[in-house]
Luciferase-like monooxygenase (Acinetobacter gandensis), 335 residues
Amino acid sequence: MRTLSETKFSILELAPVRDDKSIAFSLQHALELAQKAEDLGYERLWLAEHHNMDGIASSATAVLLGYLLANTKHIKLGSGGIMLPNHAPLVVAEQFGTLETLYPGRIELGLGRAPGTDQITMRALRRGRQETEEQFPQDVLEILQYFKVPEANQRIVATPGQNTHVPVWLLGSSLFSAQLAARLGLPYSFASHFAPRMLGQAIQLYRENFQASEYLDKPYVSMGVPTVVAETDEEAEYLATSAYQRVLGLMRGQSLKLKAPVQSMQGLWSPAEKMSVDNFYAMGQVGSHAKVKTGLERLLNKYDVDEFIFTCDIYDTDKRIENFSRLMEIKNDLN
């Protein structure tokens, strides 16, 4: 069983938009976080693709990745993930092949099977393309081929893209991508930061069915973990109310912009809504150094993952960056 110090720590960034700040502020903050993550020694920082959500500014994922790559030095950056039903595989391969050509060895492509948005927005993204989630396996294979040396008589070649060998991950919140990642021998990241219910089952399925490949010789798993780490448990619980309000907005179809923390959520949610938020954040780690360390060790003992990829919805941007500093102190056992 590995220890926290042996476990890789990474960040999943959604470029959250505060209710009192501009989108430009959010994008600048995403860069500041990437630079801080690089200084702290995080393994990677990924951006998530979501559309038509006023509180998430990472919709043009490849474009924002270019900005972050240009202003950092060595940290791995990637997508967590590109929602493949929204895109033609060739376009994805060309975009990430271009980024890999400009910044060799630093770009990663995480692929998701869901649209990452609502039905109306999905239709606006696809504009007549009859793409479905059922085509996902074939689309993944197509992208993997675009990144290889072209085969003889291959009629479509991604330029840039060919022979770049961009690392590809599969992401999922159900069992489908776990099975596909196992069959293709790809690394797998489970979206337990918002859909933790099938985490254990998906990891077991992936490991039991994994087939070694040119990409990996053994299974590699990361899991999403929401975090709010502060000086005290009480301060962390207070800061976490911004995250709870955000999930409440998602459930109610309201704004997803980050709201300032409140002293109590009582009166803001019903008992059923509280239960839903608690389920959403079942893997969440909220508290002081000691409490979060214990919580992460418990997750590691239960799931034995290779990597934690952390999210954080703290309103105050300085305290948000501080959250990731505190996590790295936990990893390095600095109390």
User: Anything to note?
Assistant: Strands lie at 8-13, 44-47, 76-83, 107-112, 168-172, 188-190, 221-229, 285-287, 307-311. The first strand starts at residue 8 and ends at 13. The chain has eleven helices and nine strands. The chain has a mean pLDDT of 95.
